[in-house]
Write a structure and sequence with these properties.
By secondary structure, the chain is of the alpha/beta class. It contains 14 helices and 14 strands. The chain is about 45% helix and about 20% strand. The strands form 3 sheets. Strands 1, 2, 3, 4, 6, 7, 8, 9 and 12 form a 9-stranded mixed beta sheet that branches.
């Protein structure tokens, strides 16, 4: 009996110990499971948060962008396109920018109709144009280059830069001044023997932002300009004047025709070894179209540009300001239909307005003022696909 009781007592102790162990194990397992569930919930929440705020990244593959428009910006745009392609060539997403210099008006139309992914334009898009395409959403107009419209000429025997005023240029294109030795020109250039030859004006045949910049300026100089010729990318030029397609076409006609005068951005003038006139600015000083004079003009409009990035900067105040300075713009829809192209465009634009500005001066463009770059970055950051941004 004693032996039986001892065994029973031992069994009871073992049973209790086992019960305690089981209870402890259950508690530990429950605790571990709760911790695991908590961890999974937090991880899921973090992942969800990251997904909702992350930017779009395209799958590996080449991305080809179709663009076109302004001939004014074409010289530097081709350099940008080539440099950016080389920069991205070894990445998982090489980007090719095919930009066609077809004129600002054609570029705008290509963007509106969807044949171009972005456009270059020296003229801002009007409110009436935007109203026609309101269903496409918000159009961004992003200044990407700062330059100037040069007035150049081909007068045999004249190898100096002539002094001209906006009023004289307007009257030449209105055919109110028809001879190079007109007294108005002679008085501004007393040390130059000007020929008794008929002036041959050359203008753009296509819709042109360069024409818009020039006519905007001439409207401030000649009170009759708006009613006779007008302001815009295409205006009422006299029908008996020569007309060239693109800036290169105007420069080519001036080279080919003695005693002619034309206009284009300063690159086309200086690259073709044409003489550019000194234009009298609002301070009464005759100024050449140079990088420094473009910067001087833009600096006078810092406050205006902070409120309206597409504001005109022609006829700027200041001793050193070139009077026909202008920005040229990248036009793109804020809401993109193709996320891969949207990603490439946004990143290309961001590079253009930052690192890409280092190419400007060699091509007679001025680097963008920092206040304009800051505005540009904000605009570019808003480009998106279904709410997901790219930069």
């Amino acid at each position: 009996m004693k032996r039986s009781k001892g065994i029973s007592a031992k069994s009871s102790v073992i049973a209790v110990v086992l019960l305690v162990v089981v209870v402890v194990a259950v508690v530990v397992l429950v605790s571990m499971r709760q911790e695991q569930q908590t961890s999974t919930t937090q991880t899921s929440s973090t992942t969800s948060s990251m997904t909702s705020t992350s930017r779009y990244m395209p799958p590996p593959g080449q991305i080809v962008i179709s663009a076109g428009g302004s001939t004014f910006v074409n010289p530097i745009m081709q350099v940008w396109a080539s440099a950016y392609h080389n920069l991205t060539a070894s990445s998982q997403n090489p980007v090719s920018i095919n930009y066609q210099p077809i004129g600002s008006s054609a570029g705008q139309q290509g963007l509106f109709t969807g044949t171009l992914d972005f456009a270059g334009s020296d003229a801002p898009v009007s409110a009436s144009q935007l109203a026609q395409y309101s269903s496409k959403g918000n159009l961004l107009q992003i200044p990407e280059a700062l330059g100037g419209v040069a007035i150049f000429y081909n007068i045999p025997g004249i190898s100096v830069s002539l002094n001209l005023t906006g009023d004289i240029i307007a009257k030449i294109y209105e055919q109110k001044i028809t001879k190079w030795n007109d007294q108005a020109i002679v008085q501004l250039n007393p040390s130059v023997t000007l020929p008794n030859q008929t002036i041959i004006p050359v203008h753009r045949s296509d819709g042109s932002g360069t024409t818009y910049a020039l006519t905007s300026y001439l409207a401030t100089q000649d009170p009759t300009w708006v009613s006779t010729i007008g302001v815009g990318t295409s205006v009422n030029w006299p029908t008996n004047e020569l007309a060239g397609k693109g800036s290169s076409g105007v420069a080519g006609l001036v080279i080919q025709n003695k005693y002619s005068i034309g206009y284009a951005d300063s690159y086309y003038a200086f690259n073709n070894h044409l003489l550019a006139a000194n234009i009298r600015n609002s301070a009464g000083k005759f100024v050449q179209p140079t990088v420094a004079s473009f910067v001087a003009a833009a600096s006078q409009f810092a406050d205006v540009l902070s409120k309206n990035i597409t504001a005109s900067i022609v006829n700027a105040p200041g001793q050193d300001s070139y009077p026909i300075a202008t920005f040229t713009y990248l036009l793109v829809w804020q809401n993109q239909n193709d996320p891969n192209k949207g990603w490439a465009i946004a990143n290309f634009f961001k590079w253009v307005v930052t690192d890409g500005q280092s190419y400007s001066e060699k091509l007679y463009f001025a680097p963008l003022p920092q206040n304009v770059v800051s505005i540009d970055i904000q605009l570019i950051s808003s480009i998106n696909y279904q709410g997901k941004t790219f930069t």
